[in-house]
TrEMBL record:
UniProt KW keywords: Repeat, Secreted, Signal
Compartments it resides in: Secreted
Highest taxon of source: Bacteria
GO biological process: polysaccharide catabolic process
Record has Ribonucleoprotein as a keyword: no
Protein name per its UniProtKB record: Scaffoldin C
Leader peptide range in chain numbering: 1-28
Every Cohesin domain range: 33-152
InterPro entries, per the entry: CBM2/CBM3_carb-bd_dom_sf, Cohesin_dom, Dockerin_dom_sf, EF_Hand_1_Ca_BS
Main location, first listed in the record: secreted
Length: 293
């Protein structure tokens, strides 16, 4: 990833001091922050959405978080990046050295090389304006290439932003994600664990009715997955973080019971999306209370 200029004022000052300033060596804070990208499934030519989330954010907070997400630009392109709820710390309006209260969250999309850079940083020393909680850091919306083949997977890899490790001439390139804060003139860095995401190119066909997990049969595990996708959407819903999360095809298979008020097909054959009614209908089928789904 090429070096990007995405910050001004205090944002630039903080970023330089934490990323390239050699005035004091970094010290380990002894804590680990997790950065995760969710997964999604979309047909060729259609849009997808994934969340970039933080977890295990230390109580001391994060003053700067600087990293990127890399992808194959022949398979997907990024259309937009929206700041997540955890970045709304009030720092943008509170930092008097900022540029007209400029947002402390910045992003830069580079579809030519297949990367998007993401940054949160503030010059404020008051940690109440830093990242302090787990949650969605940003939401990325993109489009699958119209030529992408069915079942092709485009990885979403969390990477360091490529820039000089110090401000000295000939310095080596940065090879780690910047995540930490300044304690006086000492840079305090957290360890970072990354969990990459992916975008899978979906097909047009639906499979066996009731087969939510697409294993070729209808059983209680399909009922369980439907209920998990409803109760824990971020983990088990379409594009969820879990490897066994519901897919577009699985959701189409599972949509077996319709709501007469909203069904797009016969009320008893689904068409209204996933609900507890679908789980109930599959259970009825397994108990042989109904002859078919």
């Amino acid at each position: 990833m090429k070096t990007k200029k995405v910050v001004v004022g205090a944002i630039a000052a903080t970023m330089l001091s934490l990323s390239v300033c050699p005035i004091a060596p970094a010290v380990a804070a002894g804590e680990t922050v997790q950065i995760s990208v969710s997964s999604a499934e979309a047909k060729a030519g259609e849009q997808f959405t994934v969340n970039v989330s933080l977890s295990d954010v230390p109580s001391a907070g994060i003053q700067i978080l600087d990293f990127g997400v890399a992808y194959d630009p022949t398979l997907i392109t990024i259309d937009s990046v929206t700041a997540g709820e955890v970045t709304d710390t009030g720092a943008g309006s509170a930092d008097p050295t900022g540029s007209n209260g400029a947002s402390v969250f910045q992003s830069s999309i580079h579809n030519d090389e297949g990367s998007v850079s993401l940054l949160f940083t503030t010059g404020l020393e008051d940690s109440s304006y830093w990242l302090k909680k787990d949650g969605v850091f940003c939401t990325i919306t993109g489009t699958v290439a119209s030529t992408a083949a069915e079942n092709t997977v485009a990885d979403l890899k969390i990477i360091p932003v490529d820039r000089a490790a110090t401000d000295q001439a000939g310095a080596s390139q940065n090879d780690s994600i910047s995540c930490g804060y300044f304690n006086g003139t000492t840079k305090v860095s957290y360890e970072v664990k990354t969990n990459d995401g992916k975008v899978t190119v979906a097909g047009d066909k639906t499979g066996l009715r009731g087969d939510a997990d697409r294993n070729g049969s209808v059983a209680m595990n399909d009922v369980v997955l439907i209920m998990q996708s409803i109760s824990n959407k971020d983990k088990y819903g379409i594009g969820g973080a879990d490897d066994n999360a519901l897919t577009l095809e699985g959701a189409a298979n599972a949509d077996v019971a319709g709501d007469p008020a909203g069904a797009t097909t016969k009320a008893d054959k689904g068409g209204d999306g996933i609900s507890v009614n679908d789980a109930l209908r599959i259970q009825q089928f397994l108990l042989e209370l109904i002859p078919e789904l």
